[in-house]
Amino acid sequence: MIGGRPNPLPWNYRWRTNIVHVPAMAVITAVCGSLSLLVSLVDKKGNVQHRIARVWARGCVWASGAKLRVLGAENFRKRPVAVYASNHTSYMDTPVIFSALPFQFRILARKELWPIPFIGWYLNRSGQIQIDTGNPRATLSSLGAGARALRSGMRLFVFPEGGRTSDGELRPFLSGAAYLAIRAQVPLVPIALSGVYELLPIHTRHFYPGEVTLSVGEPIETAGMTLRQTEELTGRLRAAIEQLCLPRCERAQSEEGSVSAVLSS
Q1: Using alpha carbons only, what angle is made at residue 226 by residues 222 and 230, rounded to the nearest 5 degrees?
Q2: Residue 142 near residue 132, CB atoms below 8 Å
Q3: CA 200 – CA 215 distance, rounded (Å)
Q4: Nearest to 131 by CA among 99, 101, 100, 106
Q5: In whole angstroms, what is the distance from residue 50 CA to residue 27 CA?
Q6: Which regions of the chain does DSSP assign to beta strands (E)?
Q7: CA distance linking residue 129 with residue 158, whole number of Å
Q8: How do beta strands 83-86 and 67-71 pair?
Q9: Hey, CA dihedral for 179, 184, 190, 194, is it positive or negative?
Q10: CA dihedral 113, 115, 120, 121 (to 10 degrees)
Q11: How far is Cα 264 from Cα 246, in angstroms, rounded to an integer?
Q12: 22-39 vs 47-64: helix axis angle to the nearest 10?
C-alpha cells in the first residue's frame, strides 16, 4: 500500500486512467491553455487568465475522479495580502490549489514547467514567477520579484519543500516562503494537502480517485520580524503544516493535550 493506495494498482484503475482520465485532462488543458493564450493578448492584469486557470484546475480535479473538500476556508480572507505555503505531494497539487484559492495570486514555480505546452504558456503569459533552485543568483532575482508582487497587493503561493515528496511525508523546507513573508511584512498562511499523494504519487501515471482535502491554518504574523528570523519562521511554518496534515481526530487530541499541559503548568 502507498498510504491508502493499493500497490500494485488494480487493472481497472489503470484502464480507466488511460481511457478516461488522461484524455479528458488533455482536452481540458489544450482548450483552456489555448483560450488563456488568446486572452493574454488583451488581459494585461491577468484577471481573465486566472479565471480560465480556475476552470482548468476544477476540470482537472473532476477529470481525475477526485472529490475536493476545503477546511478552514475562512482563513483565506483574514488578511488582504499574504504568502500561502503548502506541502507538495503530487502533480495534482497545482490543480487542487487553483481550484480552492478564491482569489487571484502568483505562484513560484520551478523553471522546468515553462517548456511544457499550454501549461508553460499560461505560466509565462500570466506573470507567474519562475524559480531556478539550482542557480542562487536566479533564485534571489525570483524572490525579489515575489516581494515586489506582494508589495503591489498581489498574493503569492509557494511550495516550500521545493519538490514533490517521494513517500507522502514532509520534506525539509526551503526558507523562501518565510523570507518573502518577512521581507514584505505580510502574514504566512499554512496549507496542508491530504489525499492528493494517494491520488497520484510521484513516479506514477495512474489515478486512484478518492477524497482530497485542503486544510487552511491560521495566518502566522510577521510584523516586526527581521530576515534573521527566517529559519525560525520556516520552522513554525513546517510545524503548522505538519499539524494540519494530521487526521482531524489526532489533531483534536493533540490540541487537547496542549491545552491540558498549559492548564497544569
Answers
A1: 80
A2: yes
A3: 19
A4: 106
A5: 18
A6: 67-71, 83-86, 105-110, 129-131, 155-158, 188-194, 211-216
A7: 10
A8: unpaired
A9: negative
A10: 170
A11: 25
A12: 180
Dihedral (C-alpha) 139, 215, 220, 172: value to the nearest 10 degrees?
-40
Look-up of cell digits 505580510: 186
How far is Cα of residue 251 from the mean position of the Cα atoms in its chain?
21
Query: What does the alpha-carbon distance between residue 222 and residue 78 come to, in Å, rounded to a whole number?
Result: 14
- Comparing CA positions, the residue from 206, 196, 220 lying closest to residue 87 is 196
d(Cα 222, Cα 236) in Å, to the nearest integer?
Answer: 11
> Cell 504519487, residue?
201
**d(Cα 30, Cα 225) in Å, to the nearest integer?**
44
Q: What is the mean pLDDT of each run of 10 residues along the chain (265 residues)?
A: 81 96 95 90 86 95 97 93 96 95 90 79 80 75 89 94 91 94 96 96 94 97 96 97 76 44 39
Cell output for 12:
481497472
Q: Can you name the CATH fold of 11-264? A: Glycerol-3-phosphate (1)-acyltransferase (3.40.1130)
Residue 157 pairs with which residues in a beta bridge? 84, 107
pLDDT of residue 2: 62
Q: Are 33 and 119 in contact (CB under 8 A)?
A: yes
Instruction: Count other C-beta atoms under 10 Å from residue 195's C-beta.
Output: 24
And the C-alpha cell for 165?
515528496
Q: What span, in angstroms and rounded, lies between the C-alpha atoms of 128 and 146? A: 9
Q: Residue type for 59, please? A: G
For the chain, domain boundaries: 11-264
Single-letter amino acid code for the residue at 15 = W
